[in-house]
Structures are given as C-alpha cells and as structure tokens.
C-alpha cells in the first residue's frame, strides 16, 4: 500500500517541551489546550497530544510553518516562556487528521520520533538507506497497528504513531537505525479518540 501525501493542504508539526517547574505543568497544559482550541476555531485541523515527559505535540493541517509560527506567538503569548518550541513542515504520508468535539476520551499510543544524523559516512548512501527505511515502515503499516506516519521534509526525520506498547527492538532493527542514519526515541502519547480519524 503506497504512502499518501496530503499535498492539497499545508501541514506543520510543532513539538513543545515544558521547561517550567514540575508543579505547574498541569496548569501550563490547560493553558496550552485553551490556546489550541482558539486556533482550531479559526479553521485549522489540529491534533494536540501530550507526552508523559512534560511535553506535547501539535499536528496542524491547513497551516504552513510561517503562519504557525506567527499564530503560536499570538495565541500562546505569555505561556511561551514555559515551552521550548520546535516547528517543522510535515508530510503526512499515512493516516489523516480529523476534528474532534467535546467531551473527549483520551487514548494512549506509542509515539516514535526519528531524527536524521548527517555524517560523512552516511552521505553517499543516504537515498538507498532512506528507501530501505521507508520499506520497513510500510511493513509496519501493513500490520494494521500504525495510526499515523509522516516526515519533516525529505532529510530531517519523521514520526510514527502506533497502537499498543511497541518494543524498542522493532526500531533497533530498522535499516535506517542499523546503518547509523537515523536515531529514534519512543514515548507514550495521550490524544483524543478520533484525532486520526480512527474508530
């Protein structure tokens, strides 16, 4: 089954890492949720998920990187000092984003982030290794356990969101990892049911 890129809509991914005091993290998360709801009212399809490690991720459909930067500055405003923010273009290759309405039921998924390592020894074989990595990811998708997958452009890495508890060994065997081109991290992601148009 081929990857599907939603090229008709610009998409952006935003990683937020909470940098404030541990005791304030719930309050900061509530503030962030209100700001994201404000963004959603203006027509952007947004998935907001919380990591167990004092962070969050936003997948924004119908908004490019520059607009997202401007809007986040306006909407998050003062709480921005509590968050380390990383914004990148997002090519959503598997799954899609759907709006959800209140009340929401939270689901827990496994969130895998891949980051590309640019080095002399991987530069010449980069395209071949990425093709092998993509084939490996397609095999995972065929298991039916992948909810969403996408990349941050052609060379910067990507994400994979999967159902259930996924063992590290699955990704340690990824050709991109074994060949030293990709590093990965795994964490739990809590997100509203239906955010990825799942039942």
What does this entry look like structurally?
The protein is α+β, with helices and mostly antiparallel strands and 199 residues long. The protein folds into 2 domains: 87 residues, Alpha-Beta Plaits (2-Layer Sandwich), CATH 3.30.70.100; 85 residues, Alpha-Beta Plaits (2-Layer Sandwich), CATH 3.30.70.1060. It has 6 helices and 9 strands. A 9-stranded antiparallel sheet has the order 4-1-3-2-9-6-8-7-5. α1 crosses α2. It starts with 10 loop residues before the first strand and ends in a 7-residue tail after the last strand.
CATH fold type of the largest domain: Alpha-Beta Plaits
**Proportion of β residues?**
25-35%
CATH class of the largest domain: Alpha Beta
Structural class: alpha+beta
Calculate the mean pLDDT score and round it. Answer: 80
Give the overall shape, derived from the CA principal axes.
Answer: globular
Largest sheet: 9 strands, antiparallel
H and E string = EHEEHEEEHHEEHHE
- Low-confidence segments: 1-8
The proportion of residues forming helix, as a percent range, comes to: 25-40%
Question: Which CATH architecture of the largest domain is right?
Answer: 2-Layer Sandwich
Beta strands, count: 9
Distance between the termini: 21 Å
The number of helices is 6
Radius of gyration based on Cα positions: 17 Å
What's the structural domain tally? 2
Q: Largest sheet, order of strands side by side?
A: 4-1-3-2-9-6-8-7-5
């Amino acid at each position: 089954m081929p990857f599907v890129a939603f090229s008709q809509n610009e998409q952006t991914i935003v990683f937020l890492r909470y940098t404030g005091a541990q005791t304030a993290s719930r309050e900061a998360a509530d503030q962030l949720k209100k700001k994201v709801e404000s963004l959603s009212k203006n027509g952007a399809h947004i998935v907001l998920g919380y990591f167990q490690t004092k962070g969050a991720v936003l997948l924004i459909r119908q908004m490019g990187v520059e607009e997202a930067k401007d809007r986040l500055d306006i909407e998050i405003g003062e709480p921005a000092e509590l968050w380390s923010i990383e914004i990148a273009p997002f090519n959503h290759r598997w799954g899609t984003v759907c709006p959800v309405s209140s009340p929401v039921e939270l689901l827990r998924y496994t969130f895998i982030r891949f980051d590309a390592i640019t080095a002399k020894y991987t530069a010449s074989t980069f395209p071949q290794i990425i093709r092998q990595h993509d084939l490996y990811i397609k095999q995972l998708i065929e298991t039916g356990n992948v909810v969403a997958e996408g990349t941050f452009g052609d060379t910067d890495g990507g994400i994979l969101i999967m159902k259930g508890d996924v063992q590290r060994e699955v990704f340690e065997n990824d050709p991109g990892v074994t060949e030293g081109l990709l590093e990965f991290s795994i964490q739990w992601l809590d997100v509203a049911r239906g955010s990825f148009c799942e039942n």
